[in-house]
Amino acid sequence: MARWTNAAVAVLWRRACVGGDVPARAGRRAVDETQPQFTWRAVAVGLAFGTVLCFSNLWFGLQSGWISMMSLQASLVGFAVFRALAPVLGEPFGPAENVVLQSTAVATATMPLAGGFVGILPALKMLDADEAAGMPTELGYGQLCAWGMALTFFGVFFAVPLRRQTIVREKLRFPSGTATAQMISVLHKRPDPTLDDADASGSSSTVRRRRPQPSAQAASEPPAEPGPPAALAKAGSDGDDDDDDGGNSNNDADTGNGAVYDSDVRWATKLAVLGASFLASGAYAVLAYFVPAVATLPVFGTWLSREWAWNLMPSLSYAGQGIIMGLPTCAWMLAGSVVGWGVLSPVAKLEGWAPGPVTDWKTGSRGWILWVSLAVMIAESLVSLGVVAAKELRTAYARLNRNRHRRQQRQQRQQQQQSQDQHEDDGSDSDSDSDSDSDEVDPRFLIPGWITWGGLAASTGLCVGIVWALFRIPPQDTLVAVGLALPLAVLGVRALGETDLNPVSGIGKVSQVVFAGVMPGNLVGNLVAGGIAEAGAQQAGDLMQDLKTGHLLRASPRAQFAGQMIGSVFSVFVTAGAYRLYTRVYAIPSPQFPVPTAQVWLDMARLVNGHPLPPRVWPVAAAFACVFAALPLAALLLLPGRKAGAVRLGPLAARADALRRWWPSGIAFAMGIYNTPNFTLMRVLGAFVAFAAAEAAVRIRSRGAGVSAAGAARPWEAPLRRKIAMLAIITASGFVLGEGTFSFFILLSRVSST
């Protein structure tokens, strides 16, 4: 009986994940049915690695607001695990399984941000008693799990209908998802999926071979936007690694799958580098625990350290974050740190505008300059969202005009032609629509509409009920929050697809402004509404990157959806437990865990509900807001964007792309202001060392090859940079994971000793 029950469950699960035995339809994008699409072993490894990432993300999120997806690293580590277990496995580990593995890992890893565990929940704890108005501000484990369940589903369900429009029809780039697909194809020795995708799109006459760019994901909140770094393989080069029309196209063919990451880096070397960096970073975490002084080095002198908070924290994990972010982002973070902590903070203190201790959020200059940081983030995020919204409206208007013109033409032809000709014309009118969906996978592998919309409705009802039970927020107000989250998530996903930057900080602030009118004076409700909007945008964006990866590799969206749901639900309980441990052992906020993200949320809630600004901060904040609102518009006007479908850049576009990477980033600038310098300096150092190492290796190789002319052909340079990029990303991943993992074990040891 048990055997028959297990068999029935297996059949039902197979139908849920890969579509069962529904007949295939011709003319659709093929899914490789020779390999398993969903396996529990892939889910198990994804959950395990995602749990490690979740612990790391919670640690760094509470410290500095930094969260990482690490989908690329998940695919790499997962492949390494199954490669090591290959002798005992009956079936080889395939790319479709790797897609499910990294989708599960990402869904598990990002709950600290999507669930508000590094922003909303600490902000609630920081409310004064009169601001809380009797509502609960500190939740128990069961309440934390309920809160996570309220937010974890509707972003996943809402990503499903967005997939067809943004990935299948418009083919938005989603650079991080594309880079992960390229990594998986290299690991499994498959052809470059971007070339195959270009061929499948039917535009081979206009699409040339692309030399893809390596990328790694870094989402921080706020902001989540600094995003992936400029590819280390491109750092310092004159153009994009996509190269210009004058480049040597044979390089792509010569390197094969090394188009992204050079496969000559041996597995033993990769694992040795990952293990060494992991242990080195973990050793620092242990040393800093037993000798706290090493975490705060007064490298600029004791006076600057004591009076103005200028210290260096020699954490390898923050050096790894800098490598992942890239030198351009870190450079603008350094600029923000210098302006905020080197100029504005002393001015506010000496002028008496912030007379308290420098690092005090309420009376010190730290709280004063935070408003400048908040103004910069809001200005840039809102302008960026406005640009995306304007593009969307323009596209919709053009589509309406095109459809109206087609209807008019059809009516004219129907009046002139015979019935047989009319039937043929009617079919030809829809060619463009059918072509746009010709790259979609067979319906057997898609998520059915009843699951999508039924799940969205059920998750909305769950959110409404839990929020009412926890915070007594009226159901109609929560419905408004969810309704506002969905269109904002659309804008966030589109921005992510085009630029790899998800403006979730701006999305949350928009929701806070709206709810200041819906629930005036209710700071708890304002924070909760912002958390709902942010959760929808963050989850939909992160999962869309994974769906892009799966689309390029012809994996089953159903299997990915199942992995994402399992990872999201599992992460609710893991994150809630870890958060309770952190709040039990450590004081939050504290010098070790300043939770700057929570302070940003709280200050915004107070501002929109009528609380006054600190003295003299308004004109300074307004000036910086104007500057950083103008910069995205200037970039839009001065720097030509990449044309839709173009995967190879000409010389002018390549130079514009390089300039765009170094264009001032308001989000990075704001991060440098709201984080103390000790977090920023080590990030900058890590990014600079990675950049300098790549340039030094190229110069040494150039001298060895006897290349002296500046314009001389150097066919070895791109593979060398890709190899360095691979090792740099592995090293950075080990640094980040090492400290995060060891710190959690230190936390467990402290809990067990109390």
Automatic annotation (TrEMBL):
TM annotation in the entry: 38-60, 66-86, 98-121, 141-162, 271-303, 323-347, 368-390, 450-471, 478-496, 617-639, 724-748
Residue ranges, annotated region (Disordered): 188-259, 404-440
Single GO molecular function: oligopeptide transmembrane transporter activity
Record-given protein name: OPT super
One CC-aspect GO term: fungal-type vacuole membrane
Acidic residues bias spans: 423-440
Domain of life: Eukaryota
Species name: Coemansia javaensis
Subcellular localization(s) per the UniProt record: Membrane
Name of the encoding gene: OPT8
Record family assignment: Belongs to the oligopeptide OPT transporter family.
InterPro entries named among the record's database cross-references: OPT, YSL-like
Keyword Metal-binding applies: no
Ranges of Low complexity composition bias in the record: 213-222, 247-259, 411-420
Any Pfam family hit: OPT
Entry annotated with the keyword Transferase: no
Record membrane topology: Multi-pass membrane protein
Keywords per UniProt: Membrane, Transmembrane, Transmembrane helix, Transport
